[in-house]
Amino acid sequence: MSWTMSDRHGLLMRRMKGKTAVSLLAIVSLMGGTLVWAHHGMAAFDTTHTVKMQGTVTDFQWINPHAFLYADLIDEHGKLVNWKLELGSLGMLTRYGGWSPTTVKRGDIVTVQGFRAKDGSPYMSLGRIWLPNGQSLEGKP
Hints:
Layout: H1 5-38, E1 51-61, E2 68-74, E3 80-86, H2 90-97, E4 109-116, E5 123-130, E6 136-138
Parallel strand pairs: 3-5
Antiparallel strand pairs: 1-2, 1-4, 2-3, 4-5, 5-6
C-alpha cells in the first residue's frame, strides 16, 4: 500500500488532536480536583454554636484566598490564648464588607464572634468583629 503525503498529514493531525484532547482533559481534571480539595467552606467549624471573645490583635494577614487575623483572646475559662481567625476572600471583604489591609493593626483591642473549630483548637471562622472605634464588620460578607 502506498501512502500519499495527504494520507500521512491526515494521520499525523488525528494523532495530534488525540494527544491534545488527552492533555487538555488531564489539565482540567487536575485543576478541578485541586479547587474542590482546597475549598472546604465551613466544614472545619461548629456552626451550631457561636462564641464571643475579646482581646488584642497580634497580626493581620491580608492574603488570598482568605484573610487571617491573629489575636490573643480570653476564652470562656478566662484563659488567654492566641487564636487564628479566618475571614472571607479579599474581594468580598473589600467590596461588601468595608475592609481594607489597614482595618485592624497590632495592638488593637477587639471583640470577635464566630464559629470555633470542631477539633477544639484556637481557630475560628470570624462572623463579626467590633473594632476599637465601635465599628462592627462582618468577617465573611
